[in-house]
Amino acid sequence: MRRPPFTTERALKEVDRCAGSQFAPKVAAASLEIWSRGVLGDLPAAAAF
Fold first, then answer.
1. What is the pLDDT of residue 43?
2. SS3 string of 25-43?
3. Residue 31 burial (CB count, 10 A)
4. 19 near 25, Cβ under 8 Å?
5. pLDDT (tens digit, 9 = 90+) per residue, 1-49?
6. What SS3 class is residue 23?
7. Buried/exposed code over 4-24 (b: 16+ C-beta within 10 A; e: otherwise)
C-alpha cells in the first residue's frame, strides 16, 4: 500500500532535513531558496506524483 503524498510544507521540511544525506546540500539549499522566492509558483500537479 502506498502512503499518501507529502504536503508541500512537509516536503520542504524533508528536503531541509535530508540535506547532506539524501540530497546534495547545495542543491537542497538552492531548491529551498527558489521555492521561498516563489519562482516555481504553485505546483498542484506535482502532488499527483
1. 64
2. HHHHHHHHHHHHCCCCCCC
3. 17
4. yes
5. 898 988 889 999 999 999 999 999 999 999 999 988 887 766 665 555 4
6. strand
7. eeeeeeeebeebeeebeeebe
Residues 38, 28: contact at Cβ < 8 Å?
A: no
Whole-Å CA distances, 31 to 3, 4, 9, 42: 24, 22, 13, 14
Q: Cell for 10? A: 512537509
> What's the DSSP call for residue 22?
T
CA distance 42 to 7: 12
Please tell me the distance from the alpha carbon of residue 31 to that of residue 29, in angstroms, as a whole number.
5
